[in-house]
Structure formats: C-alpha cells, structure tokens
Amino acid sequence: MLLAKDLSFRYPRQDWILQNFNMEIAPGEVVGLLGPSGFGKTTLSKLLAGYLSPTAGDVRVNHAPLPRSGYCPVQLIFQNPELAVNPRWRIQQILAEKQMPEPSLLEALGIHSGWLNRYPHELSGGELQRVAVARVLNPATSYLIADEMTAMLDANTQALIWHRVLDYALVQNLGLLVISHEAALIQRLCNRVIDLVQVRASERWKGA
To answer: Which domains does the chain have, with CATH numbers?
Structure first.
C-alpha cells in the first residue's frame, strides 16, 4: 500500500503546513481528500509523489521508500497540466515517456492522432489534461493522485476523464487519491473520505 507515516512539512521559518499526518491507500481503493484552499492538499500530493521531501515522517510505497530517480510508481496529475509535461517535447514523446498508451485508451480519452506531432502549447487546457492523464495510465503506475484534476475543465470533459480513470483503476487495481474542495465530487467517487478540517482539529495535530 501507499503509506504516509507521521508526515510533517513546513518551509524554513514558516508555519507548519502538515503535522503528524498519517494515511494509507490500498491497491484498488479510491480515497478522497477533502479540504478548503490553504489546508495543505497540494503540498501533501507533492510529498506522496516525491516532488517534495518531508520535514519529518516518511512516505513508503509497497514497503519501500519512494525512488530517487526513474519512474515513480506514485504518479501525480496536477490541476494545471502544463506542470506535468516538458514544453519542448512533442505529444508523442510525452505519451511514450514510460510506455506508449494503447490506441484504445487514447481513443477513449478523446486524444486524436493529429495531436501527436504537436507541442503542448498547441493544445487547449482540456486537450493537454487528457494527455497528462493518458501518460500515467500504464502498468508502472501503482498509485495515482488526482489533485483537483478536472477543476478547470468543462463538465463534459470532467465526466469523460473521470470515467476513464475510474475504469482503468478498477481493471488494473490502481490505488487512487482524489483531492478536491468539492464535497459532492468526493462523495460520488470515493470509498473513503479524509477531511483535512477534522484532521487539523485533532489533538494529535495540535500536539505536534
């Protein structure tokens, strides 16, 4: 499983963003992380995927530390897909960074063959987010973190992406963390919900 143990983080000379935070995600489980802006959701997502190192505590995936190089089994889909792709690479190269997705997956996500020779700036935000999703839906990904993944997209594109991600997670036994400030979305998608407002009110947090 993906495990965060006594996870704490703050930037130098600033207040704590996370303190003594514990969570686990099992393979095939869809967990929701709910909380308003400023409660550390994005910071936590970066810690779990290895983009940040914790001030204290530990993140482990399948009993091992996160790898320091190479493809990480915990992949993060950002709200802004521009953060996840190399602007100098064509879409074909971005998709094939670890393993080129099956044509059926590209079709299901509405990714057209005509996009493959383009650069990221030549796609719309919704089109590029589909590419960012397709890039990480491969056997090397064991856990997927969706940080406000569809917050900037229209309703039709939101529904399309979530259907495909959930279908893939079910078939591949992928652990999924859905991060959002929208309670309705979290309740609809997830087996279990972590509310950061309640976590911050806990005595364990206050005593950190």
So the answer is: 2-206 (3.40.50.300)
